[in-house]
Design a protein that fits this description.
It contains ten helices and eight strands. About 35% of the residues are buried. Strand 4, helix 5 and strand 5 form a beta-alpha-beta unit. The mean pLDDT is about 90. It is about 40% helix and about 15% strand. It is α/β, with parallel strands linked by helices and about 230 residues long. Helix 3 packs across helix 4, helix 5 packs across helix 10 and helix 6 packs across helix 10.
Length: about 230
């Protein structure tokens, strides 16, 4: 008997087949809370470069993973999970930290927006900082936050060296900060393009939505050190 399956069933079956290999599922799990370069993924998962390239290629073909070129080191690419391609896949595991610190280069837009969104979504304390802090917060970052009912208030920029404390969970929200920060820090990486480069309302809105989606994914799995779960 011939059975005609709907296109949605066929597509879901294809996705399940791609994710049915342990190494590829491990890559997806690694990218769920933060972006990473192929070399970082390979090192963390213990996969040789040729095997990693094979698995990443299949994930890209399935529309699960995409890559972007670093805004810092142009020789680098970062892998990003396309969460819209994954239905019903939730964050894996739990993390504990006394505080979450969002870092970018100038601490004038992305890290400020991330910290504000975090404070709205989590009871775990948050702060923001920059590797080369600007004199003040970008006006379009303030305007974008206010448009979403999230006033930034009288926030100031600060240097990471003046903000970071032992055991903080650091989330680098730009490529430059990720590449400049101490690799031994407990940190995640979100490869969010700098909206100030375009300097448009649309660019800041896109960055806000990107960060908001990531905060929504990370907040439920991060608990303050010592709190009951």
């Amino acid at each position: 008997m011939n059975v005609e399956w709907s296109s949605s069933v066929v597509e879901r079956a294809r996705l399940h087949a791609v994710l049915g290999e342990p190494a590829r599922l491990a890559i997806v799990d690694r990218l769920l809370l933060g972006d990473a370069s192929p070399s970082e993924v390979g090192r963390e998962l213990g996969l040789p470069s040729n095997l990693l390239a094979h698995h990443v290629k299949l994930l890209e073909q399935a529309g699960v993973v995409e890559r972007s070129r670093s805004e810092g080191d142009q020789r680098r690419n970062y892998l990003r999970l396309r969460t819209d391609a994954l239905t019903g896949l939730g964050p894996a595991g739990q993390r504990t930290a006394p505080r979450v610190v969002f870092a970018c280069t100038y601490n004038s837009a992305r890290s400020q927006l991330a910290a504000a969104l975090w404070k709205k979504n989590s009871t775990v304390p948050a702060a923001s900082a920059g590797t080369m802090p600007a004199d003040g917060v970008h006006p379009l970052a303030v305007a974008t936050a206010e448009a979403h009912g999230l006033p930034l208030g009288r926030v100031h920029t600060a240097h990471v060296e003046d903000v970071l404390r032992p055991d903080d969970l650091v989330v680098a929200v730009c490529d430059n900060a990720h590449e400049q920060l101490d690799s031994h820090l407990d940190r995640l990486h979100w490869s969010v393009p700098d909206p100030a480069r375009a300097g448009t309302e649309d660019a800041f809105e896109h960055a806000f939505r990107d960060i908001a989606d990531r905060v929504d994914r990370l907040a439920p799995v991060v608990h303050q050190s010592g709190e009951d779960r």
